[in-house]
Model the fold of this input.
Amino acid sequence: SVTYRAENGATVISQQGQPVELLAPTWFAARFANVSPVGYSSIKVGGREYGTLEVVLTAHMAVNQSWFRLQRHMAILALAVGLDFLGILFVLRNGLRPLSALNDGARALEAGHLAARIPIQGSPELARTIAAFNRMAEAVEVSQNALRENLDRIALAASVFAHATEAILITDAAQHILQVNPAFSQITGYDQSEVLGKTPRVLASGQHDGAFYATMWKRIRAEGQWHGDITNRNKRGDVYPERLSIVAVRDATGSVANYIGIFSDISELARQVAERTSELEALNHTLESLSTT
Done:
């Protein structure tokens, strides 16, 4: 606005439009040096002073415009920050989900759920990691199933070994006894502790010469097994006939690792054969006698 004050005190005010209200907050307007500057000037003509002009300027509109621009910029910045935050959340969520799935899969394996698999997901690197985990889980499952089957077979073999009616002895490659079953002790009279580390020669009766044993072992080395009847001696010193089978067990390299001997006491069978033979001989003698009369 412009105000003219004459020497006689008369005042004339000239103002264009309505005064602009300051809408910006005080703390923002305070950053400007002076939002309403005032200027004064004396009017002199021919050395005579006719009055004073007072000019009042206002920067309210400019301050308000600056404030509105700042608000728009802050809103745009807040929107940009919000979008960035949402983007980060999206990336983290999609990135952490595969890691969480891997953790759940590992816990499932630890708990014994060997069939646990993880759906392929995430970035190419995480997808390859998950695929490798699934392959590892499958290998563990196959290995555990094979181990379980082997343990079942071992348990079955152990049951057969313990409950077999035939004597069973196992030796190493040098023929030192490693293990015998209960039937061995029942037939021979030797407990396992008495024969461990010894060779089967502890049962030798002395009725077979070296040539017999040389032939037997030659066949075992050539064919991997031998079957036949042999006479042995038990702990009491009694000689008895037995039906014996010897099998060579080889390792992965083809070398002999163990020998397994399975035998049974055929004393009763030998007695019955002897009795039957005697009966047949007696019958034959009788027939011969009748034929000569």
In short: The mean pLDDT is 83. The chain is about 50% helix and 25% strand.
